[in-house]
Amino acid sequence: MIDIDFRALPDLAVRNLGGAVVHANDEAFAVRENLITPGPAVFDPSTFGPKGKVYDGWETRRRREPGHDEAVVRLGAPGIVRGVVVDTSWFTGNYPPEVSVEGIALDGHPSVGELLAADGWHTLVGRTAVKGDTENDFAVRSTRRVTHVRLRIHPDGGVARLRVHGQALPDPALLDALGTVDLAALEHGGVVTGCSNLFYSSPNNLLLPGPARSMGEGWETARRRDDGNDFVEVALAAEGAVAVAELDTSWFLHNAPGWASLRGRAGEGEWVDLLPRTPLRPDTRHRFVLADPPPVDRVRLDVFPDGGMARLRLHGTPTTAGRAELERRWTAAR
User: Fold this and answer.
1) For residue 317, which of 174, 181, 207 has the smallest C-alpha distance?
2) Coil, helix or strand at residue 202
3) 158: Cβ contacts below 8 Å, ≥ 6 apart
4) Which residues form the Allantoicase domain (predicted)?
5) pTM, entire model
6) 70-80 pLDDT, tens per residue?
7) Bridge partners of 247?
8) Distance CA 211, CA 209 (A)
9) Domains in the chain: ranges and CATH
10) Cα separation of 318 and 324, whole Å?
């Protein structure tokens, strides 16, 4: 596993990665889908609906009998969970006193009934007290792969967001069947391991699926006032040969980088050039065929001098060694 603070890892549950809240036993005051909405919760003190105050979160009715409320989230990218954030922002007199989080790995596309009846749910976060109007974060030490998580609130109340940070771990057989894949994609296990500047937005956005729908869905740095340049380092899903690199500046009209380059390395080897310093155009999907690419498991994107980019795609195939390491990780996590 990548050894970095878990909050720097991608949120495997977020909606724009494909996450979904597939079940909640109660959503009387605020709907369950809000739990995985990208971005922080917002609050307008003037908004009231027919059911009371409108909250940007999930909120259940006041319990008058013993028990707890729960919501089940299907991760957009199954993987190893390294940390969970139970965010109670704006819930001050109606947050749950305690929460717990469990995980399970079920292949295929199980129904809600199958999920609720399944054996194999295991603890990620034991029943723990939380604070209101707070991002309550919990490190997770499980090494097991998870496809779904179950948030339980004891006994009731409201939660604004649920963040499930970790590293995706795809089935190696899936990558085999796909052939050439994006080795940097979050859903395949790509992880940002270094970044010079994330002033406006997270570099994890570069590796999300699908096209960016606005400038806010990319990575953008502050304006540089020195002679340096900004960069992002990415650990690939597996060691592989990158055949095509896509540097997408869509939506960045007046703040795209002027130039970019790519370098790669395998293990602790030397950095080697994959794409020399090359001019970029604003609001453009640049695709570059890389001639005779060497095997690499880490890639560094340098932008000159600064600016924003919507997506980074590194299409290629795992090497024999990379495929074997992915298989080892997959087997160990089951």
Assistant:
1) 181
2) coil
3) 29, 30, 55, 57, 58, 59, 60, 88, 91, 94, 95, 96
4) 18-168, 189-318
5) 0.92
6) 999 999 999 99
7) 286, 312
8) 7
9) 6-168 (2.60.120.260), 172-323 (2.60.120.260)
10) 9
